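Usage

Read records sequentially. Each one opens with the input sequence:
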Amino acid sequence: MNRGAPARKARSGGFILDGAPAASQTSRLAGFAALGLALLAAATVTVYLFTAGDDSAGAPVEDGTATSPAGIRNAPTAAPDTGPLDSKRPEISRPAPDFALVDARDGSTLRRLSDYRGKAVVVNWYASWCGPCRSEIPDFQEAQDAFPDDLVVLGVNYQESRERAVDILEVLYASYPAVLDSTGSVADQWRVGSGLPVTFFVDRDGILRGMKTGRVTPSELEAQLATLGLPYRAAN
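and closes with the structure output:
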């Protein structure tokens, strides 16, 4: 062997292995292969997360509401005999439009807004992806607890599965009744729009006295309940 001859360069897969022993070359090739697999796995996860989306949180907007994420999944179909019960639109100082929807916790129970005549009612459209909803739900439960015989907070879940509709209430320790607006037909009649939460305040006679788009703050809740004849002082 001619010791003065330059070392030969081996080529493998486009990489130049300059005079390296066979074992070293094999080790390098194994390292490159492992790196390639890691990069491929990372790219696959990135593509999945991008295309799958996350419908657990809606996009916030400036008025304190959240808009529903694209492609809401697992929204149930409407049950028979549910939806708006009259053709009226909500107007302040006019009777609140009646509706019937399935109870979120008990699918065999149908609830109507008119069932609560004789009590003040807070009708609150909410969803699990709605950040402002999470902020106000505990406040509504506190008010419900303060007036167990005179006030009903009625949660109206917007186009989600029963599991999602109930889970958010359980996480926030809310026990007031809730119903499923599965197709959004009642929300359409009540002009709820795409931003949640939206809340309506109905007096004991079924007359609509107030409404709010966006989170109801504790001070706003105090003021609205006062219009319904319920003097209330929020804890926070």
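Summary fields computed downstream for this record:
- The radius of gyration is 29 Å.
- The domain at 60-227 is CATH 3.40.30.10 (Glutaredoxin).
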